[in-house]
Design a protein that fits this description.
There is one protein chain. The protein has three helices and two strands. The protein has helices at 26-34, 39-45, 51-68; strands at 6-7, 18-19.
């Protein structure tokens, strides 16, 4: 997934994709959602990630999946 809101830099957590401007790995958002947590739980756990940023990353992921989908 390419997103201007996610950075992967070897100097930040060894290149783990993180929300831009933070050290919060994007995978943590997906792990929270997979566990059934509402977005608010993630945002409470990681206040350095704004609601807008989290939603934009989710929208970027959705757009990436839709763009790669093959029509049936």
């Amino acid at each position: 997934m390419k997103s201007p809101r996610v950075v992967s830099d070897p100097e930040i957590l060894g290149g783990t994709p993180v929300f831009i401007g933070t050290r919060v790995p994007v995978r943590i958002l997906f792990e929270h959602l997979e566990a059934g947590d509402p977005l608010e739980v993630f945002l409470d756990d990681f206040p350095s990630v704004s609601r807008e940023l989290a939603v934009q990353v989710l929208e970027d992921a959705k757009a990436s999946l839709v763009a790669d989908a093959h029509s049936a």
